[in-house]
Write a structure and sequence with these properties.
With 177 residues, this protein is of the alpha+beta class. It has two domains: 26 residues; 142 residues, Mago nashi protein, CATH 3.30.1560. 31% of the residues lie in helices and 35% in strands. It is built from three helices and seven strands. Strands 1, 2, 3, 4, 5, 6 and 7 form a seven-stranded antiparallel β-sheet that branches. A hairpin with a 2-residue loop joins β1 and β2. The model has no long low-confidence stretch (mean pLDDT 83).
């Protein structure tokens, strides 16, 4: 016969496991504990506002506006904008450590580096759309992904791509405020 003390001792690891796992499962953010100080990351994020221009028989796609955000490993930011062919002055800034760790963790934990670089086809009737590109170098491994906005393609864009895009767009919006 099992004594009550054995039940109590057997329940302790279960209770500890629940106390650890429940907050991790209910939190919808990626934990920043995945990022460590030894990680080396560089991110180059580009957004192009594109427009199809028809010259009778031929068509050409031209950029109306191009934005480039470059994030170095130390959190240094460089933001460049080219609009209607004219380069605007660069904006330089510094990303706080917490936000940098959040992006590192997001890219590390979700396997962003392992996403295959596939091309997305653009729908025929779309004349103006946004096409984005992100090039990530994490600890010597580089991955570069191009994708259009969701309403310009019939293909499925993985949610991790849109999560990274959202975080980088938030950084841009803070810079240009």
């Amino acid at each position: 016969m099992v004594k009550p003390i054995h039940y109590a001792l057997g329940a302790i690891p279960i209770i500890v496991a629940l106390l650890i796992s429940v907050p991790l499962l209910t939190k919808n953010e990626i934990p920043t504990s995945a990022a460590n100080s030894f990680d080396f990351i560089e991110i180059e994020y580009t957004k192009h506002q594109l427009k199809k221009i028809s010259y009778g028989v031929t068509e050409r796609v031209g950029a109306q506006k191009t934005e480039i955000l470059y994030i170095k490993n130390d959190g240094t930011l460089k933001y460049s904008v080219t609009e209607q062919g004219y380069l605007q002055p660069d904006i330089r800034s510094k990303l706080d450590e917490k936000k940098l760790d959040k992006i590192k963790a997001l890219i590390k934990e979700t396997g962003f580096i392992a996403i295959p670089s596939e091309s997305f086809s653009i729908l025929e009737n779309v004349t103006e759309y946004q096409k984005s590109n992100v090039k990530v170098t994490l600890n010597g491994r580089t991955n570069q992904i191009y994708w259009p906005e969701p309403n310009a393609t019939s293909q499925f864009i993985p949610p991790i791509i849109t999560m990274v895009e959202y975080e980088l767009d938030q950084i841009i919006s803070k810079i240009i405020e």
